[in-house]
Amino acid sequence: MGKLLFQGHGSYRIITNEGIVIYVDPFLGSGYDLVANIILVTHEHNDHNHIELPSKNSETIIIRQDSLKLGTIYNKTHVFGVEIEAVEAYNKNHDKSCSVGYILRFDGVTIYASGDTSLTDDMKNKLPNYDIDYALLPIDGIYNMDVKEAILCADYIKAKHTIPIHMKPMELFDLEMANKFIHESRLIVRAGEEIEL
Fold first, then answer.
1. DSSP code, position 36
2. Residues forming a β-bridge with 196
3. For the whole prediction, is pTM greater than 0.90?
């Protein structure tokens, strides 16, 4: 059974059935001790790109937004048995040219790591067809969409579980904010909590 550890803010760690360790947007929280097979960076803002935090070895693969996005073309790759596909991420604070989200597929599970974003065309037109199991969406309403827009995005995406993240600047977690994300797919995961996928 795979696992997801929400480290806080926009950072989380995924472990697949095969023991492949994936870090997404490392910045805050604990749980960086396991050696990374894959580190994903959705964009280069300071609260998403601390690749020095996870333990690494010579085989660690670091994928940044420009690794899979060439101009307007969003590509995919397969590493360590994990399929990673770049998708759109953008809003007034995050230019489409230098931000991405990721679709991760492994063990029969599909995860949408949205990065920092608001409603995108991909959310409306592409992601509803992806049968997403877990979508992680920012809800801060400052640098990203607010709770109301995140609920609209969840309606489009139709993930089985939607985890609200990135709730307040520089804070690991805020229960009051998480509880405002009222949606049938909502799954609240506190900072430092690990769930089975």
1. P
2. 3
3. yes
